[in-house]
Structure formats: C-alpha cells, structure tokens
Design a protein that fits this description.
The complex is a heterodimer of chains A (about 675) and B (about 120). With about 675 residues, chain A is of the alpha+beta class. Chain A folds into five domains: about 170 residues, HPT domain (Four Helix Bundle (Hemerythrin (Met), subunit A), Up-down Bundle); about 90 residues, Alpha-Beta Plaits; about 55 residues; about 180 residues, Histidine kinase-like ATPase, C-terminal domain (Heat Shock Protein 90, 2-Layer Sandwich), CATH 3.30.565; about 150 residues, OB fold (Dihydrolipoamide Acetyltransferase, E2P) (Beta Barrel), CATH 2.40.50. Chain A is built from 21 helices and 22 strands. In chain A, α2 packs antiparallel against α3 and α3 packs parallel to α5. Chain A is flat. With about 120 residues, chain B is α/β, with parallel strands linked by helices. Chain B is about 45% helix and about 20% strand. Chain B is built from five helices and five strands, in the order βαβαβαβαβα. A five-stranded parallel beta sheet of chain B has the order 2-1-3-4-5, with helices on both faces. In chain B, α3 links the parallel β3 and β4. The longest helix of chain B is centred in the first third of the chain and has 13 residues. The chains are: A alpha+beta (about 675), B alpha/beta (about 120). At the A-B interface, α1, α2 and α9 of A face α1, β5 and α5 of B.
C-alpha cells in the first residue's frame, strides 16, 4: 500500500505556520521573564510537532534543523538550561529560518542551506555537541537484518507475568506474530494454573515454549516481545546450542545500527520535493470553529421549519390566516437575519492574527533604536472580517512603527521628563456599534504641534497668522508628502506616510484620527466596518432612481435655505454651512437623469465627507436607512466612475452605491461636461 | 473492523494516520488532545487507542493512565507515538499502562503493521 504523503503537506504547512507563531510569541513572553512551565511546554510542543511532521512527510532538511531547536527546548523544559537572551535570540532566529525553510519547501524553491547550517552550528555549540545527522539515523526499518546472525532456529520460552493482560497485550497475538516468522511449534505450560476456586480471571497463568525453525534474525524474534519487556520472563536460545548458551541469551543483544540511511525512507522525500511546486498556488482557506458551523446548521434547521410552516399557511389560504402568515414572515425575517449573522461570523477572525507580529517587531525595533518599550495588547479576541484583517495589517505596522520611532523618546529623555525609562505602546481593539475600533497609543512625547504648524506654513497649507485648532493641526499629518521627521531613519519616515495609511483605511470604508497631548503621548484611533460585504446605507431618491450613500460618509442632511446658497461663475454652486462653503453637487447632473426637483431652495442636501473634503449632494428625497449587501459592479457589469457597487432592494430593483470619494473628484473637475457623460450608470434590474 | 481512536494535536499527523487506517478499512475517529481523547473514549468503547505524547491540556501519558483505570479500557491496546529520542517516555508510558509504542517518523506500512499486531 502506497500513500501519497504530499496530500497532507498543506495541512502540515498550515499548522506549522501556527506553531511558529506560537513559538515566536512564547519566546517573546519568555524574554519578559515569564518562563513558566506551561509556556516552555507550549514552545517545545510546537517544535516537536514540526519535527515529527516534517520527518514523517519527508522534509528531512526541516526535520534535521528542528531537531536542534527541540533538543535545546527540551533541556530548557527539564530545567537543565537557564533562560538567557542569547538562547532566545538563537531560537527566534531559528524560527525565522524555519519559516523560510518551510516556505521554500512549500513553493518548491531552493533553500538557503548556509543560513540553516550556521544556526544549527550555533545551537550545536550551545548544546555542547557537534551537530550530527541525527534524523537520518532515526529511521530504523524493522526488517533490516543485523549482525545478530541467522541460525537454524530459536527456542523461545515465554512466561508472562500475571498482569500481562492489563497492559493491553495478549500472548495470543505474539504467538501469532511468531508463527508468521517461520516453521513453528508451540507447547503450552499449564503448571502455574491455580485451582479453579482460586482462579483470577484477569491474570495470566500460562506459559509457552515455542520452537521456531528457519533463517530468522534474533532481533526479529525479540522485537515481537519488545513491548512486554519487564512484563514477562523471556529466553531466546539458538536451537542448535540450547545447553551451551543458556545464560547468554538472557542478556540484551547489543547491535550495530544500520548506518546507511534507509533507501526506502529517502525515496518518497525526493518525490514530494520534485513534484510539489503545485503547492505554491495559494488556495486561501479559513479555519472555522466547529461551534460556528453548528450554529449555522442550527439556523438552517430553523429556516426549514419556518419554510414548512409558511408552506402550510399558503396551501389553502383565507383571510383568517393572515395573522399566522404575518407571524411566519416575522419569524422568517428573524431567521434570515440570524443566518446572515452566522454566515458573516464564519469570515470573522480574532484580530490577534494581525496583532501577533507586533511583539517581535517592537522587540527588534527597540533593540535597533536603543529604546526601552513595553508593548501591551488587549482585545486580541475581537473579531473582524478576514479580508479587512489582511488589508489592515500594513497600516497597523506603519502606525506602530511610528509610535516606536517618533512617539516614544530615548530613555534618558524620558528620565529627564520625569517619566519611566520604559515607554509603553498599547494596542487595543474592541467593537463599537457595527464597527471595530483599533487604538494605537503611546505614552511618548506627543505630536510636535509647533513643528507641524511651521512646516504647514512653509508648504502654504496654513496662513501665516492662522491659529488652527489642535484637531486641524493633527489632521495635517495625514496630508500627502507631510513628514516632520528630522531625518529619515531606517525605521520610518521613508516617504510612505500617513496619507497612505489614511488612504488604505478609507479604502476599507474606515476612518483614522489622532489625538495627541504634548509630553503625554498620542493615540491613533482606527474605525473599520466589521465586514466589507455589508454596508449601512442611506437610501436617497433622484427622479426614478434610488442611490445608496454609505452612512459612514454622511456628515449631516439639511434643507437648503435661500440665503445660504451662492453661485460663482457659471455652474459652480456653494452652500454656506456655518463657517464653511460647501460645493453643491446635483446628483441628477452627474448621472444624467431627470429629477423631480431642480430648484435648490427647499431641496435636500446630503453633506458627505470623503478624503478629507466635503461636498453636498442635492437629492430629491431621503428614504430609509438599511443594511445592504454589496454586489460588485465590476464583476457583474463594468466599472462605473462614482459608483462603488450595487445592491438589490426589497422590491427587486437595482440601486447603485455611491463612491463618495469618486463623486467628490468628479465635482472638482468643474470643466468637464455634464456629469460622467455616461448612460451606463442607469443600470436596471434585468 | 476495530474502532480506533487517534489522539494527536497535530492535524497533519492525525490526517495521515486516519487516512492510512481508513484506507485499510478501520473505523477511525480523531481527538485533538488528551482531554478530548478521554472524553471521546468515555463515550464509546474503542478497540484501539493511538496517542501522541506531547499535547496541550492533557498529555498522552496521562491519557493512558486515565484510560487504563476505566473498566472499559482495562485490556484495550493503548499505543503511544513517540520519538526515538524519548526512551524515558517509553518507560513512563509503560508504567502508565501503555500496551506499546510506535516510533516517529513512521510510514503508513509500519503503522498498518503495528495496528495489525494489536487488532483481533
């Protein structure tokens, strides 16, 4: 029977990645002094599993490398070795190396044997032994004939101790196994059988003498009794020389191990490595807790019940059953909503997946910058959509780097300011309404207000005598090309700035804002929708059409007053909202449709904000607010400017979801002819 | 065919063992650690239990000790998956009541041979 081991590789890679993450965070915790047994055990187990798996699945390079790590960790676990920075450094580097080795095995790319070799050597040195090819020696094949020598046959006296059955072993199985080895005769010794009245049914009172004839290695014979060593009296003697060597056979046989790596064990390994570039094609998968799946199945069950109930009501319907119908529909609505929530929950993952890289990153950065930093994380179990999680990673890295590099001061500066030398960076996540909120907080110097103002004046973003509010000043750091870093460090200030962070977060339908207090630190707050598949929308009507404005981008809605409307040069119209002039955008112009109302006075203006700019959308009417499921226009139709997607309303018509950023851009191109000049925006349900 | 419970915290090992044994016609169920294994074993009488040693929540040695104390598992073959380096584990396993052990890494043929040794 041959089994293709490569089919288990994907699972192995996945769990190894998890194991490595666990090792990394464990090692980082250990460094903080918390070397409790459970922590060390967790790290050890991860290394152990990777080693076991890689050896089994033929990744000998990985197995060999992991062996050293495992040995070091085992010593740590047994208390034979103390936690030292050097040890943790080596182990952390090994985690990186192992990650690279596994990635290389997965993609079929070439590995960097030098790196692994050097690390192995370092670990070997720590272990006080030269690294050997341990793994390969460890694949003994049971059938290898050894120097024990062949004989005419063997005389085996097997006298189990009374408790043998209670180890789960059974003499019958062993005798059967012996019988398979060669020509076999057996005699049962019943002399130890007690009288019936004294019999203990669970004890073994029998003994056997087996004569086994054939060219059989002694090792093979002894192997049969390997598991019951100590649970029986066993003698194995050569048949020819029974009398002469009675004492010798009772001794354990010392044997030379087959030194040559076993050919059989090597063959599958080469096979998997050569045929495996296929694994590189990434199929994205998520692990879903069984409870979530159960909840889903439960929900579907409810749905089926409701459906059959409604079916019954509909069978011969008369007005007396209206109440029942309404009741059924209400239940259906509840079922649908719960089902929707459950399905969404499947895509939800704890934000820990995005957070877990930070302990390592902060450790490395603070070493590089000679700062002392304590990273605290909370709310790691807060869940959000997998896609959002993947996309929020980079902005988060940027913000954390910023806090470490620019936020936290050098230890002596901190001491001089009367603060603890160790700076604190806090990552916090929690749910609020339909959003997830992520805070990145540091207790550093705070944003340099004066510096920002000076720079802004220089760039002409601020008037010379303007005294802006804190909020307005701190908003400036999100402008493109705005960096106050004195010098570009290796860590941050490389031009990819806060503007990109904001843009990326915007693209996810989220917002980012900053609060800062001089000398006390700054806090960046990111707000993200829990999912990209559903959106809270405000339905607005223009003529016959319904559009959806994302609720997050709406600032306010008002009825326009004559005195606040002013028109400058041709088509550009402005509306004065308190101290601000807001461009008015006639949605019907944009989409080339016929509205019910063209007169601004008394009309409804929906003030929206996108990319830091505000415009007012002139619409006919406001409808209700509701959650809408986003359907991609691009994949179903084609890209339409100013529209981010579409949805299907309750009555079956298609409504377009406005892309507020795109609409604002369009409004700025005042020179362009009417709207987008497209009729394509008028999509109707087929 | 015997019912086999395989206990291992590594999903890939579980898959490999389960796939091999199912292919040979055994009924196989999986448990993710010792505690899960014990719970499953209590709910059903398995004919053979194969367990890893190093696992979270409850390790394999403890699992074997617990199982052996149950009337249903007094004589059941309980096998330990160990690594070659862990000779002390074999002894600890034996002391806890393990029937035998299988040395990692093993290939499907070795696995089937070992299971055959204790089944029937």
């Amino acid at each position: 029977m041959t089994i293709d081991m490569s089919k288990f590789l994907d699972t192995f890679f996945e769990e190894s990645a998890e194991g490595l993450d666990a090792m990394e965070s464990g090692l980082l915790n250990m460094q903080d002094g918390a070397a409790d047994d459970e922590l060390v055990n967790t790290i050890f187990r991860a290394a152990h599993s990777i080693k076991g798996g890689s050896a089994t699945f033929g990744l000998s390079e990985v197995a060999e490398f992991t062996h050293h790590m495992e040995t070091l960790l085992d010593e740590l676990r047994a208390g034979k070795r103390a936690v030292a920075t050097e040890l943790i450094d080596v182990l952390l580097e090994s985690v990186d190396c192992l990650r690279a080795l596994l990635a290389a095995s997965k993609s079929g790319a070439a590995t960097d044997p030098e790196r692994a070799r050097i690390l192995s050597q370092r670990m070997g040195k720590m272990l006080g032994a030269a690294p050997g090819h341990v793994v390969q020696q460890q694949a003994p094949e049971g059938t290898v004939a050894t120097a024990g020598g062949a004989a005419q046959g063997w005389r085996i006296v097997f006298r189990p101790h009374a408790h043998l059955y209670r180890t789960g072993n059974d003499p019958v199985r062993m005798l059967r196994e012996l019988a398979e080895l060669g020509d076999y005769t057996v005699a049962c010794d019943t002399s130890r059988l007690p009288r019936f009245a004294d019999a203990q049914p669970e004890d073994c009172a029998l003994a056997w003498t087996v004569e086994l004839r054939g060219d059989i290695a002694e090792k093979r014979v002894r192997e049969v009794f390997d598991w019951v060593d100590g649970d029986c009296d066993l003698t194995v003697e050569r048949l020819a020389a029974t009398a002469a060597s009675a004492h010798k056979s009772a001794l354990p046989v010392v044997e030379q191990k087959a030194v040559e790596p076993d050919a059989k064990a090597k063959a599958p390994e080469q096979k998997t490595q050569s045929q495996d570039p296929r694994a590189a094609s990434e199929t994205s998968s998520i692990r879903v807790g069984i409870d979530k799946v159960d909840a889903l199945i439960n929900m579907v069950g409810e749905l089926v019940i409701t459906q059959s109930m409604l079916g019954q009501v509909g069978k011969d319907f008369d007005m007396s059953r209206v109440e029942k119908l309404m009741h059924g529909l209400a239940q259906l609505e509840r079922n649908t909503r719960e089902l929707q929530e459950s399905v969404m929950r499947i895509r939800m993952m704890p934000i820990n997946f995005a957070f877990q890289r930070f302990p390592r990153m902060v450790r490395d950065l603070s070493q590089k910058l000679n700062k002392k930093i304590d990273l605290r994380m909370s709310g790691e179990q807060t869940e959000l959509d997998k896609t959002v999680m993947e996309k929020i990673g980079d902005p988060l890295v940027h913000l954390v780097r910023n806090s470490v590099d620019h936020g936290i001061e050098m230890p002596d500066t901190r001491r001089a300011a009367g603060k603890s030398e160790t700076g604190i960076v806090t990552l916090n996540a929690f749910h609020q309404g339909g959003n997830i909120v992520i805070e990145i907080k540091d207790d550093g110097a705070g944003l340099p207000r004066d510096k920002i103002i000076a720079k802004a004046r220089k760039q002409g973003l601020l008037g010379a005598d303007e005294e802006p509010s804190d909020d307005k000043v701190f908003e400036l750091i999100f402008m493109a090309g705005f960096s106050t870093a004195d010098q570009v460090t290796d860590v941050s200030g490389r031009g990819v700035g806060m503007d990109v962070v904001r843009k990326n977060i915007k693209a996810l339908g989220g917002t980012v804002e900053v609060k800062s207090e001089s000398g006390k630190g700054s806090t960046f707050t990111i707000r993200l929708p829990l999912t990209l598949a559903i959106l809270d929308g405000q339905l607005v009507s223009v003529g016959e059409q319904t559009y959806i404005v994302p609720l997050v981008s709406i600032v306010e809605t008002l009825q326009m007053k004559r005195e606040a409307i002013s028109a400058i040069a041709g088509r550009a119209e402005l509306y004065r909202l308190r101290d601000e002039y807001i461009p008015v955008l006639r949605l019907y112009d944009l989409f080339c449709i016929e509205p019910r109302q063209k007169e601004l006075v008394g009309g409804l203006l929906v003030v929206v904000e996108g990319d830091g700019k505000r415009v007012g959308l002139f619409v006919d009417d406001l409808q209700n607010q509701q959650q809408v499921v986003i359907k991609s226009l691009e994949s179903n139709f084609k890209r339409v400017p100013g529209v981010s997607g579409a949805t299907i309303l309750g009555d079956g018509t298609v409504a377009l979801i406005l892309d507020v950023g795109g609409v604002i851009d369009a409004s700025r191109q005042a020179t362009s002819p009417k709207g987008f000049g497209t009729k394509q925006a008028q999509v109707r349900a087929a | 065919m015997p019912h086999i419970l395989i206990v291992d915290d590594s999903a890939s090992m579980r898959q490999m063992v389960a796939f091999t044994l199912k292919g040979a016609g055994y009924d196989v169920e999986e448990a993710v650690d010792g505690a899960d294994g014990l719970r499953k074993a209590k709910g059903k009488a398995y004919n053979i239990v194969v367990t890893d040693v190093n696992m979270p929540n409850m390790d394999g040695i403890t699992l074997i000790k617990e199982l052996r104390a149950l009337p249903n598992y007094k004589f059941t073959p309980l096998l330990l998956l160990t690594t070659e380096s862990a000779d002390d584990k074999k002894q600890a396993g034996k002391a806890a009541g393990a029937t035998g052990w299988m040395v990692k890494p093993f290939n499907p043929e070795q696995l089937l041979a070992t299971i055959k040794k204790v089944s029937g």
